C-alpha cells in the first residue's frame, strides 16, 4: 500500500511562481506597443461639434411626403433630373435579393448626389457624426431625413429603396431646406427690426441692408435669437467668418443680378431689393455656398500638402499643432488646427501605425465634421469630397458594380485632381495590390468594397479618405461619401475585408500586437501547465524514493 503524500503546498507555490513569470513576460509584450497619445493643440478653446437639429413636426413631414407623391403622378422634373444623375452610382451599388438598396446604401446615394447637385450635406441621414451629444429624450427620435426614408421604404414593405425612391428622398430634403430658408429669412428680418438694425415697414431694402439680412439669416442657422440676443447684436456689429462669407457671396450675387437687369433698371433710382427678392437670394446662396466656401477647404488642403514632405497624404500631429491659425484679408480666422488627438482618432483622421509618431490623414481630416459649418438646420456646408468625382468617373465609364484591373488602371491612370496637374503612373506595388483585390473576388474589383476604397486612398492620398470609419450596407460594403456621415467602427468588417494594404492600427489593444500577445500568453499557459505536471511527477517520485524509500510505479 502507498503511503499518503501531501503535495498541495508545493504545487500552489510552483503555480504562483510560474504565473508571476508569465505576467512579467506578458507585460513586456504589451509594453512593446506604445500607449496611445492624447496630445492637445496649443489652441485651448476648441470644442467638438455637438450641434442639435431643428425639430420638424410630423404633420410637416407627412405633407412634404404627400406633395411629392402627387408630383410623381404628373412627373416631377426635379426627381427625373436627380434620378438621371444617380443612375450610374445606383447600378454600381450592391443590391439586396429584391434588387433594392438597403438603408445605408440608399443614404449614401442620396448624400452623395445632394452634395454634387446642391453642394451641401444632409444632416441626420444615416449615422451623423457631428451629433456627438444628444439628450436622453431626443436620442431615439428620428430626424426628418430618417423619417422620410422610412416612409419611402414602406412602399416596398421595408425591403429597401429603388432608384426613383432615392431621387425622391433627395428632392424632398431639398424642399425642406428651401422651406427653412424662407422661414429664417422672415425671422432674420423680424430680429433685425426688433433690435433697431433695420427700418420698420420698409418694403424695399438697400443693398447694405439686404447683406445684413443674409448675415442674420446665416446666424439663425446656428443660434436662437430669443436666448442669445446679446450675441446676435455683437455678431451683427462684428460678423464672424461664416457670416462674412455669406455676406460677401450675397453682395456678388446682387451685383450679378443688377448686371443681368441693367437694360430694364432705372439708372436714376437707387438699387433696392424687395423681401421676395431677398428670399430668392437666400435660396441662391444656399445652392452656391458649398462651392463658394470650398475655397477655404482648398486653401487648407494646399497648406497641409506643404507639410507632407513624403507625399503620402499624412502630416505629423506634432508638426500640425505647431502651425499658427490662418486668417483672411480681414483678419478673420479661416482655419486652424485645434482639434485634440483623441477627437482626430474618433473621426478616423489619424494614422497610428506608430503611436509615438501619430500622423493626420489629410483627406480624412478635410472631410471631417470639424470642417463643416456648425448648424442646427437639416443641412450644412462641408468640404466637398473630391474622391466622389474619381469614383463617379469610374462608375459612369464601367456601368457595373465591379471591374477587372485591366479596365480600371487605364481609366484611373488618366485622371487628374486638384493636387495633380497631370496624370501620374501608379507604382508597381499599387498595380499588384489591385490585382490581389481582384483575385480575392473572382477576378474583378468591387467598386464599393472596402479594399478598393483603401486602394483609392493610396492612389489619391489627398482626395480619397482612408476607410478607418465607414458606413456599410448589410453585405459589409463601404458606403460613406463623407466622414460627416459615417460613424460605424471597423469591428464589424469581415475577416476578408480587413486584409490590409499596409499594417494598420497595430497600437490598439486588440490590434495586431494585442492578438500576438494574447496568443503568446495562451501558448505560455499551456507550456506552463505541462511543465508543472512534469516537475510535480518528477518531484513526487524523487521525494518518495529518496525520503520514504517508496517507488510510486510499484504502488497498486
Account of the 3D structure:
By secondary structure, the chain is mostly helical. The chain has a domain at 8-31 and 511-554. The chain has helices spanning 8-31, 58-74, 77-92, 103-118, 144-153, 163-194, 207-220, 229-237, 241-260, 275-306, 317-321, 341-346, 362-366, 386-398, 405-413, 428-440, 450-459, 512-548, and strands at 121-122, 204-206, 272-274, 314-316, 326-327, 333-335, 350-351, 359-361, 379-380, 402-403, 445-446. The chain has a three-stranded antiparallel sheet. A hairpin with a 5-residue loop joins strand 5 (326-327) and strand 6 (333-335). Helix 2 (58-74) crosses helix 5, helix 5 packs antiparallel against helix 6 and helix 6 (163-194) packs across helix 10. It is globular and about 85 Å long.
- What would you report as the Rg, rounded to the nearest angstrom? 31 Å
Low-confidence stretches: 1-6, 28-33, 127-140, 469-517, 543-556
**SSE order, one letter for each helix or strand:** HHHHEHHEHHHEHEHEEHEEHEHEHHEHH
Which class of secondary structure composition applies to the elements?
A: mainly alpha
State the helix count: 18
Q: Main sheet: which strands, in order across?
A: 4-8-7
Instruction: Tell me the strand percentage band.
Output: under 5%
Q: Main sheet? A: 3 strands, antiparallel
Distance between the termini: 7 Å
Overall form: globular
What is the typical, i.e. mean, pLDDT?
78
Q: Portion of residues in helices? A: 40-55%
**What is the tally of beta strands?**
11
Amino acid at each position: 500500500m502507498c503511503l499518503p503524500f501531501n503535495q498541495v503546498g508545493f504545487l500552489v507555490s510552483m503555480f504562483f511562481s510560474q504565473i508571476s513569470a508569465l505576467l512579467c513576460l506578458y507585460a513586456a509584450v504589451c509594453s512593446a506597443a506604445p500607449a496611445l497619445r492624447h496630445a492637445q493643440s496649443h489652441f485651448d478653446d476648441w470644442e467638438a461639434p455637438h450641434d442639435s437639429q431643428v425639430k420638424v413636426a410630423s404633420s410637416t413631414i407627412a405633407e412634404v411626403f404627400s406633395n411629392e407623391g402627387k408630383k410623381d403622378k404628373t412627373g416631377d422634373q426635379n426627381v427625373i433630373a436627380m434620378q438621371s444623375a444617380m443612375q450610374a452610382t445606383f447600378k454600381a451599388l450592391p443590391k439586396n435579393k429584391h434588387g433594392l438598396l438597403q438603408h445605408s446604401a440608399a443614404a449614401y446615394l442620396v448624400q452623395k448626389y445632394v452634395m454634387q447637385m446642391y453642394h451641401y450635406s444632409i444632416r441626420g441621414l444615416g449615422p451623423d457624426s457631428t451629433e456627438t451629444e444628444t439628450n436622453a429624450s431626443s436620442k431615439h427620435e428620428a430626424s426628418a431625413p430618417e423619417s422620410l426614408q422610412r416612409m419611402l421604404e414602406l412602399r416596398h414593405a421595408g425591403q429597401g429603396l429603388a432608384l426613383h425612391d432615392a431621387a425622391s428622398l433627395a428632392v424632398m430634403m431639398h424642399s425642406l431646406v428651401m422651406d427653412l430658408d424662407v422661414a429664417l429669412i422672415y425671422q432674420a428680418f423680424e430680429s433685425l427690426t426688433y433690435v433697431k438694425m433695420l427700418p420698420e415697414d420698409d418694403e424695399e431694402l438697400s443693398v447694405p441692408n439686404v447683406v445684413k439680412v443674409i448675415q442674420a439669416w446665416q446666424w439663425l442657422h446656428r443660434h436662437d435669437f430669443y436666448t442669445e440676443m446679446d450675441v446676435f447684436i455683437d455678431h451683427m456689429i462684428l460678423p464672424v467668418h461664416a457670416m462674412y462669407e455669406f455676406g460677401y457671396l450675397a453682395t456678388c450675387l446682387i451685383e450679378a443680378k443688377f448686371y443681368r437687369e441693367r437694360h430694364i433698371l432705372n439708372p436714376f433710382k437707387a438699387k433696392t431689393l424687395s423681401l421676395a427678392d431677398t428670399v430668392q437670394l437666400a435660396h441662391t446662396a444656399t445652392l452656391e455656398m458649398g462651392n463658394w466656401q470650398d475655397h477655404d477647404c482648398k486653401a487648407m488642403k494646399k497648406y497641409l500638402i506643404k507639410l507632407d514632405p513624403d507625399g503620402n497624404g499624412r502630416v505629423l500631429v506634432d508638426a500640425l499643432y505647431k502651425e499658427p491659425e490662418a486668417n483672411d484679408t480681414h483678419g478673420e480666422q479661416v482655419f486652424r488646427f485645434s482639434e485634440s488627438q483623441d477627437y482626430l482618432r474618433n473621426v478616423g483622421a489619424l494614422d497610428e501605425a506608430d503611436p509615438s509618431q501619430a500622423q493626420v490623414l489629410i483627406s480624412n481630416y478635410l472631410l471631417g465634421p470639424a470642417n463643416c459649418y456648425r448648424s442646427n438646420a437639416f443641412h450644412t456646408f462641408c468640404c466637398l469630397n473630391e474622391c466622389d468625382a474619381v469614383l463617379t468617373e469610374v462608375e459612369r465609364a464601367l456601368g457595373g458594380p465591379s471591374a477587372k484591373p485591366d479596365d480600371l488602371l487605364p481609366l484611373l491612370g488618366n485622371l487628374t485632381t486638384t493636387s495633380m496637374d497631370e496624370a501620374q503612373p501608379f507604382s508597381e506595388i499599387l498595380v499588384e495590390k489591385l490585382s490581389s483585390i481582384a483575385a480575392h473576388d473572382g477576378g474583378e474589383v468591387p467598386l464599393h468594397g472596402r479594399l478598393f476604397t483603401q486602394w483609392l486612398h493610396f492612389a489619391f492620398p489627398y482626395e480619397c479618405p482612408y476607410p478607418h470609419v465607414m458606413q456599410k450596407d448589410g453585405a459589409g460594403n463601404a458606403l460613406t461619401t463623407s466622414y460627416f456621415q459615417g460613424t460605424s467602427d471597423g469591428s464589424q468588417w469581415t475577416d476578408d475585408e480587413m486584409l490590409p494594404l499596409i499594417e494598420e492600427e497595430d497600437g490598439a489593444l486588440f490590434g495586431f500586437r494585442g492578438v500576438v500577445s494574447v496568443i503568446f500568453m495562451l501558448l505560455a499557459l499551456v507550456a506552463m501547465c505541462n511543465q508543472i505536471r512534469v516537475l510535480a511527477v518528477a518531484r513526487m517520485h524523487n521525494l518518495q524514493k529518496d525520503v520514504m524509500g517508496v517507488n510510486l510505479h510499484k504502488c497498486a
